[in-house]
């Protein structure tokens, strides 16, 4: 059974619930209600940019929150019971919320309200942040891993660069059974593949982060690194993160409709050069003009616009732009959203 990704909470993993924020300081939380018998909490892994790789103005509270979360996980907090989404970033805890806490906060049957809550603009966001709330997305997937049915749920919020300046936050929940030494590379490989071709994500913002929690409820044995089950789960997690990225791109210019643009640089003699050129083109006025020209044409016939070869779908929802350098056989692709 291949993994099938759907937007919404169709295939919810076992053992997780959500609460939406009850005050002005926090947006919501994810609770780990149940785990595998030999776990006290969900196995956790966090990907966050090193401080020396953050290229944007520092958002001190968000950056401090991620540093605190990294320190907590690095110091032995390997089994998490709660993830708290605050205006100033992501916080993990080994303690679950009490019944009274949940009643005060507002427990919800499903994760869609939490996804919407995550899109609330941070009160401590940089002055350059847009006034409107960044997009949020929710998707799930389910498939067979080592003969057992495993589910994954993904939450995402943030306005994708180069237009936006709000942090990109992704959270993956799964009932697969993994130890931390396996979950961390799994998350890194899936995130690298899913996020690597989205323009602007190479430059990190304070507060950017990808968190994964695995409570082990769906499996009797742990997924081992390098096994067929590992590769199967990696494919499913990658597809989930790709769907979340697509959903955020679709909403990047809300309330206006967005056009997804594929920027391809081909014929380079160096992969890093091709990637750098694709990133630069994706953020350029030259590209925006070529896309606007393509969308204004009455038909979808392939055409040239300056140095670009441009194709678009009949409905104008996607445009492909290619540039030939003519020096080699390497290339790079980036995706971006522009208004239509």
Features:
340 residues, L-amino peptidase D-ALA esterase/amidase, Ubiquitin-like (UB roll), seven-stranded mixed beta sheet, 7 helices
Named at the architecture level, the CATH assignment of the largest domain is: 4-Layer Sandwich
Could you estimate the helical fraction of the residues in percent?
25-40%
Radius of gyration: 21 Å
Strands of the widest sheet, in order across it, are 1-9-10-11-12-4-5
**Count of distinct strands:** 17
CATH topology of the largest domain: L-amino peptidase D-ALA esterase/amidase
List the domain count as a whole number: 2
> What general form does the structure show?
globular
Order of helices and strands: EEEEHEEEHEHEEEHEHEHHEEEE
Number of separate helices: 7
Describe what this molecule looks like in 3D:
This protein is an alpha+beta fold. The protein has 2 domains: about 5-250, L-amino peptidase D-ALA esterase/amidase, CATH 3.60.70.12; about 260-340, Roll (Ubiquitin-like (UB roll)), CATH 3.10.20.340. Helix content is about 25%, strand content about 30%. It has 7 helices and 17 strands. It has helices at about 60-75, 100-105, 110-120, 180-195, 230-250, 270-280, 285-295, and strands at about 5, 15-20, 25-30, 40-45, 80, 80-85, 90-95, 105-110, 135-145, 150-155, 170-175, 210-215, 260-270, 305, 310, 320-325, 330-340. It has a 7-stranded mixed beta sheet, sandwiched between helices. Strands 7-6-3-2-8 form a 5-stranded antiparallel beta sheet. Helix 4 packs across helix 5 (about 230-250). The longest helix has 23 residues, at about 230-250.
């Amino acid at each position: 059974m291949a993994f099938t990704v759907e937007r919404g909470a169709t295939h919810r993993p076992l053992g997780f619930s959500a609460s939406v924020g009850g005050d002005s300081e926090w947006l919501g939380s994810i609770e780990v209600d149940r785990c595998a018998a030999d776990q006290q909490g969900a196995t956790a892994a966090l990907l966050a940019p090193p401080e020396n790789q953050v290229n944007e103005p520092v958002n001190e509270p968000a950056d401090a929150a991620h540093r605190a979360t990294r320190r907590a996980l690095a110091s032995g907090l390997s089994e998490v019971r709660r993830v708290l989404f605050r205006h100033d970033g992501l916080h993990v805890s080994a303690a679950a919320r009490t019944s009274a806490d949940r009643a005060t906060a507002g427990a919800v049957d499903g994760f869609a309200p939490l996804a919407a809550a995550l899109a609330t603009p941070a009160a401590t966001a940089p002055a350059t942040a847009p006034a409107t709330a960044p997009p949020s997305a929710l998707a799930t997937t389910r498939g067979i891993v080592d003969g057992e049915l495993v589910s994954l749920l993904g939450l995402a919020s943030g306005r994708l660069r180069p237009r936006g300046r709000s942090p990109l936050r992704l959270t993956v929940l799964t009932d697969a059974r993994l130890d931390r030494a396996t979950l961390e590379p799994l998350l890194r490989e899936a995130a690298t593949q899913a996020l690597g071709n989205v323009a602007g994500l190479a430059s990190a913002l304070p507060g950017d982060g990808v968190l994964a929690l695995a409570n082990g409820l769906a499996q009797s044995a742990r997924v081992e690194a390098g096994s067929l089950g590992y590769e199967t789960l990696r494919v499913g997690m990658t597809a989930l993160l790709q769907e979340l990225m697509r959903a955020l791109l679709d909403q990047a210019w809300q309330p206006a409709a967005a056009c997804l643009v594929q920027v391809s640089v081909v014929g380079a003699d160096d992969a890093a050069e091709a990637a750098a050129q694709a990133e630069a083109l994706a953020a350029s006025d030259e590209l925006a003009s070529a896309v606007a020209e393509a969308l204004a044409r009455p038909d979808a016939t392939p055409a040239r616009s300056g140095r670009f070869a441009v194709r678009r779908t009949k409905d104008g929802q996607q445009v492909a732009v290619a540039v030939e350098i003519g020096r080699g056989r390497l290339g790079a692709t980036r995706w971006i959203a522009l208004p239509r």
